[in-house]
């Protein structure tokens, strides 16, 4: 269904290769559909005991959704509405749900850039998900940078991260490496770059039914990723990001002269004020929800976001015009009201008509 998704079955494993290197494997609607079709076909296929998803390029596993597509179709109709946009987010979030509850080992080789939608297709559930990171891993949920919010299940996996780590990642959108990914609980195993080709040989030689155990043994002997920045700065993260509002968090960061706090503050000062507030509310709510309810909530929010236009402005500034000067609405944190935030959570559909009601 997509020239950028290559699938094959070998030695009892279904293998998916993302092959859109020039776009860092950014997901198109056709790619989402091809991934879904393969996973549905293999779910009940006795010849497939495990699934491996990987990239054809060491630069990126997947950099997220195709934001140029979002901008193009979102501007094609009034209020950011488009049947293609509706289809993309409905089908992408359904794919995220399918992956989270996949009944067979789902092994994601998170090498290179893993951001946004790339996280959604790598965060398998605790029963069968196997997430492998490397020295090249650059992980982030950077949606607030383009006027969006952490979606693709981010309201669940960030809100269930230890302490305030998910808040830090969601509100700053900053990138972390392998050690931090393991510390936050967004990865399971680390394999150093020097051992990456050996891992590939192991995956090729091991029958699908034995892949999970073979990976655990291999990674256990491969060495440690060490301590990351988030572990080192955990006390500072809790001191600032456990506060109950974006304004309080930023004020607390402003009073901390440390380099870590100042980097976080600088990042937040460039983000959409409204979407940072929406993100904090999203994570607060997501902490009390299961995966399906989180994805339904996110589906509501993405509809409201495109109606508002914040993401269209963010993509324009970052990717289209590249002026890096988004005109956020509202422009300042002081102008964001609770009523504005609450409006994003108002369901656009009655429950019986929600596009993800069947999850």
Number of continuous helical runs: 17
Number of strands: 9
End-to-end distance: 23 Å
Radius of gyration, taken over Cα atoms and rounded to an integer in Å: 20 Å
User: What is the CATH C level class, in words?
Assistant: Alpha Beta
Roughly how much helix do the residues carry, as a percent range? 40-55%
* Name given to the CATH homologous superfamily: 2-enoyl-CoA Hydratase, Chain A, domain 1
The ordered H/E elements are EEHEEHHEEHEEHHHEHHHHHHHHHH
Portion in strands: 5-15%
Biggest beta sheet summary: 6 strands, mixed
Overall description:
47% of the residues lie in helices and 11% in strands. The radius of gyration is 20 Å and the shape is globular. The strands form two sheets. The protein has a six-stranded mixed sheet, sandwiched between helices. The protein has a three-stranded parallel sheet with strand order 4-6-8. It has one domain (5-226, 267-353): 2-enoyl-CoA Hydratase, Chain A, domain 1 (Alpha-Beta Complex), CATH 3.90.226.10. It has 359 residues and is an alpha/beta fold. 49% of the residues are buried. The protein starts with a strand and ends in a 15-residue tail after the last helix. α1 (29-43) packs parallel to α3 (83-100). The model has no long low-confidence stretch (mean pLDDT 94). The chain has helices at 29-43, 67-74, 83-100, 117-120, 154-157, 165-172, 178-184, 196-205, 211-220, 229-232, 234-241, 246-254, 259-270, 273-286, 291-308, 310-320, 338-344, and strands at residues 5-10, 13-18, 50-55, 60-62, 106-110, 113-115, 129-133, 138-140, 189-190. The chain contains 17 helices and nine strands. This is Enoyl-CoA hydratase/isomerase family protein. InterPro entries: ClpP/crotonase-like_dom_sf, ECH_dom, HIBYL-CoA-H. It holds the Pfam family ECH_2. Keywords: Hydrolase, Isomerase. Residues 14-345 form the Enoyl-CoA hydratase/isomerase domain.
């Amino acid at each position: 269904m997509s020239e950028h998704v290559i699938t094959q079955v070998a030695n009892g494993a279904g293998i998916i290769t993302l092959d859109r290197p020039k776009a860092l494997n950014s997901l198109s609607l056709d790619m989402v559909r091809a991934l879904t079709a393969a996973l549905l076909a293999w779910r009940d296929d006795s010849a497939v005991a495990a699934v491996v998803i990987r990239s054809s390029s060491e630069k990126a596993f997947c950099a997220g959704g195709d934001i140029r597509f979002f901008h193009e179709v979102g501007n094609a109709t009034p209020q950011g509405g488009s049947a293609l946009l509706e289809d993309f987010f409905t089908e992408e979030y359904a794919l995220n749900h399918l992956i989270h509850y996949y009944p067979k080992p789902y092994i994601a080789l998170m090498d290179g850039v893993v951001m946004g939608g790339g996280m959604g297709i790598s965060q398998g559930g605790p029963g069968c998900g196997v997430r492998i990171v490397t020295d090249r891993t650059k992980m982030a949920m950077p949606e607030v940078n383009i006027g969006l919010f952490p979606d693709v299940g981010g309201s669940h996996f960030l809100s269930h991260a230890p302490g305030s780590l998910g808040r830090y990642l969601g509100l700053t959108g900053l990138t972390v490496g392998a050690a931090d990914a393991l510390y936050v609980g967004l990865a399971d195993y680390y394999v150093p770059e020097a051992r990456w080709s050996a891992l590939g040989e192991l995956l090729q030689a091991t029958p699908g039914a034995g892949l999970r155990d073979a990976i655990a043994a291999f990674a256990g002997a491969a060495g440690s990723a060490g301590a990351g920045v988030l572990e080192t700065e955990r006390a500072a993260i809790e001191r600032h990001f456990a506060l109950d509002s974006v304004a309080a968090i930023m004020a607390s960061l402003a009073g901390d002269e440390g380099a870590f706090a100042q980097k976080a503050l600088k990042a937040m000062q460039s983000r959409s004020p409204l979407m940072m507030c929406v993100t904090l509310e999203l994570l607060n709510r997501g902490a009390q929800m299961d995966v399906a309810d989180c994805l339904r909530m996110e589906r509501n929010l993405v509809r409201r976001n495109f109606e508002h236009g914040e993401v269209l402005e963010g993509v324009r500034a970052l990717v289209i015009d590249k002026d890096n000067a988004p005109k956020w609405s509202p422009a300042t944190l002081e102008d964001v009201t609770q009523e504005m935030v609450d409006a994003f959570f108002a369901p656009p559909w009655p429950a019986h008509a929600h596009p993800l009601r069947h999850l």
